[in-house]
Sequence to fold (143 residues):
Amino acid sequence: MSERRVRVLIGKPGLDGHDRGARVVAMALRDAGIEVVYSGLRADVSAIAQAAVQEDVDVIGLSILSGAHLAICKRLVAELRERGATIPVVLGGVIPAADHSALRELGVAAIYGPETALEVVVAAVRDLALNHALPARAKGGPT
Fold:
């Protein structure tokens, strides 16, 4: 019997219009056999939560470069909770280290910067989806 196919929603919330990183990650996930649902640019947080529930995704990946990561993640976690969903959230972008603890307290499972190897992101998404845990911390891994 084959391993079930992992599904991930890649969201690009807020007003930031830079989506190259989100698209590169989406392609790496797809190339690794992971099904990707892409929200498109400037997606509303409630629409991301709704799509994640409707699409029955295993993981939500957010790409945020605008500096609004704390507010966006807080709202997303609340929206998911309102829908009774427990979907791990992974965050990528330029996220100051000083905000990592607060994001973790909100429930963000992993935070990746622009220099993170795509293989590390793919492994984390797969492990979160299948095992509900991150792989052992490796160089370039999540913070």
Remarks:
- The chain has one domain: 7-131.
- Residues 16 and 66 are 6 Å apart (CA to CA).
- The chain is about 40% helix and 15% strand.
